[in-house]
Specification:
alpha+beta; seven-stranded antiparallel β-sheet; two-stranded antiparallel ribbon; 35% helix
Length: 219
């Protein structure tokens, strides 16, 4: 009698008492077996719109004439990082975000000489990238974004237009880098997002692509 009752109680303690708990136990077991193997490519997360404000921009000494650029990002896993005053002054770094699992991004805003109307006035995507590296390359190299000038680092480039503003978009390798850049009202806006290793790229590729493709500067 007592032994049977104790055994029944022990069994009840380890067996889910509802369909919901049973489903949770199954999901947990599946997740554990996946984690034990290679990193699976994560599906794209739900994205939240981030819009830069003058109040925040003032802290990094960027011009009050800078347009309030925006992008979409996974709010639950990506967080804002501190931007040093030195990086703001030397390289126009206005914003940094990162995710330990997926990578990091930085946005630079810089005055552009001769106030071109668009990046097409600067030249081809490859020529424009050389200018970006002159202005921001030292920051990228020192902060894990890589060196876009290395031979074979450019995998692809394309030109897109949003609300009349021309963007040059790049995909680079070693490390995996995605860049979106635009010029408006004489200022250059460059977003660079990177996965610092293959593990981050496997986890975050889709989110990184969605973040960079959503980057937008009002005309």
């Amino acid at each position: 009698g007592l032994v049977t009752a104790a055994a029944a109680a022990a069994a009840a303690a380890i067996v889910p008492s509802s369909p919901a708990l049973a489903a949770y136990a199954t999901q947990t077991s599946e997740a554990s077996s996946t984690t034990a193997g290679s990193v699976a490519a994560a599906p794209a997360s739900e994205l939240t719109v981030y819009k830069r404000s003058f109040r925040e921009r003032f802290e990094t000494s960027i011009s009050s004439g800078t347009h309030d650029y925006s992008f979409k990002y996974p709010k639950e896993t990506w967080k804002a990082d501190i931007v040093s005053l030195n990086d703001g002054k030397l390289y126009g770094v206005d914003l940094r975000f990162s995710s330990a699992q997926e990578g990091q991004l930085a946005v630079s805003v810089l005055p552009f000489i001769a106030t071109p109307d668009s990046l097409k006035d600067v030249g081809t995507p490859a020529e424009a990238l050389e200018r970006f590296v002159e202005l921001i390359g030292a920051f990228w190299a020192d902060n894990g974004f890589g060196d876009p000038t290395k031979n074979g680092s450019i995998k692809s480039t394309r030109e897109v237009k949003k609300d009349g503003v021309v963007y040059y978009e790049y995909e680079l390798v070693r490390p995996h880098n995605l860049i979106s850049a635009a010029v408006t009202d004489g200022q250059l806006y460059v977003m660079c997002a990177t996965a610092v290793n293959e593990r981050q790229w496997e986890r975050g590729e889709q989110n990184l692509r969605n973040i960079v493709s959503s980057f937008q500067v009002p005309p």
